[in-house]
Description:
The complex is a heterodimer. Chain A is mainly α. Chain A is built from 20 helices and 2 strands. In chain A, a hairpin with a 2-residue loop joins β1 (452-453) and β2. Chain B is built from 2 helices and 2 strands. Chain B has a two-stranded antiparallel sheet.
Amino acid sequence: MSFGAIGVAALGVYLALLLVVADVARRARRSHAPVDHFLAGRELGVFVLFLTLYATGYSGNTLLGYPGEAYRRGFSWIMATGFMMAIPILGHILGPRLQPLAVRHHFVTPGDWVRHRFGGERFGPALRTAIAVSMTIALANFLFAQLKAMGLMAEQVTGGLVSYELGVCVLAAVILVYETLGGMRAVAWTDAAQSLLMMAGLGALLVWLLTEAGGLGPLTRGILAVRPAAAAVPDAAECANWISSIALLGLASLVYPQMIQRIYAARSGRDLSRAFAWMSFMPLTTTAVVTAIGLAAIPRFEALGHVDADRVMPLLLGAWAEAGALATLGAVLVFLGALAAIMSTADSVLLSLASITAVDLLERQRGEAATTQLGKRIAVGAMVAMAALALVARNVTLWGLIELKMELLIQCVPAFLMAIHSRRLRAGPVLAGFAVGTAFAVGVGFGLGMSRIGGVHAGVIGLVLNAALAWLGSLRRPA
Amino acid sequence: MKSRRLRRLALLGVAALYALSIPWYRETGEAPALWWGLPDWVAVALGCYVGAAVLNALAWRHTEIEDPDAPGGDEP
């Protein structure tokens, strides 16, 4: 049986299982209220909460983009382990305060917190709308990146039997079906299954690579022989980039709408604490592993000349698949694991996008079943639009898309992380800071094409301006 | 009280390990020695992240999250 045929069969079984899970989730539904559809009735226990946090945080970008970055930059990409670990570390700032408030005041979307905190102030509604618009743009961008990665991965896992275009359309349709049927419950349960698949696949690939290279020492010596600069101590700009990436990814990931909604969906504070405690170890078992995988590609592909960053993982898996029948099965497992990671992020993003649009932008009541129905229709519209875009725009690298999303999201930090600890902050200065920070990040980063200044991301500099303006402006007494 | 102090100490440890993980104190471009098969500065960074993961998990174990049903919660 060929690699492609095994891939098609495995993909079919996997998609069928997802639909079964969706049906079970639909039967477990308690009501048609938004809190049940978008937050699984706030019943996520520690195990499912941990796995859905994991599947949401570690996306197709982690599995496809990060090995490519490690291949391109060398050992300094160990910084990715640091910035992914910054998420559960910085989680201490937000989670313990936000979870009880969310339960007490029935929050469903991130905008519910903004309304609760700033709602009575003159600029409160404008701040809430501005944040909802920014989050919607970031989520749409993220959804597009996941759809693009899904198409590429479907093509790879089936050895080209399923085309990129067909992969995008079929997988987008499957996500839509299980999400509209089962809501957050289906998303979280499929996330749990997808996380386990992803971990199994990555572990198998790492073992194969290290066995092939003869261990870590020979692998590093192989890298030193073909590209010594990849192992040299990084310069000041790279160290600045390391610090900036920890700030950018750590802070922005914490204000991911889907991350905030998982904090809302926790069954209890104790479950949330335990899930975040377990999350602390995941960068070591995932990010460090994909970094090692990208590094292992250096001695293999250096002689080929330029290799696109996004192609590194598929090329490695292709090479592995040729090593025998067992290796073929292993490569299919990794491909499926990567596809699972991508789909699990796409479904979470879509659910958040639908809820924010329905509740925060269209101002529908968060307690009514009609809001859930509207959210489902928005999900269909958003998925169709982004899938169409993914079909016509294939030439955008995944890492570039992650950075764009992060530069936008990080500007929401004062409205969440600062405002939850300080009574002093007022809506007007926070809105002004948000506008200045976003304008700086987008203008300098994308208008002028300077995504970093001295190694520091434009979004991080924008956040410093944003936070300073929010804080200093709030010191002035209102007229 | 003891729990809160332990949590604070663990988080301070995490901050110190993060500062140590970035090789800002090393000579740029220096050829590294190999430790456990990795360039020494990479082995240091990885060791720091292992330590940070353990301390952060400990900090979360000692994090007390308020009961949402308790009257008069801690609101900003």
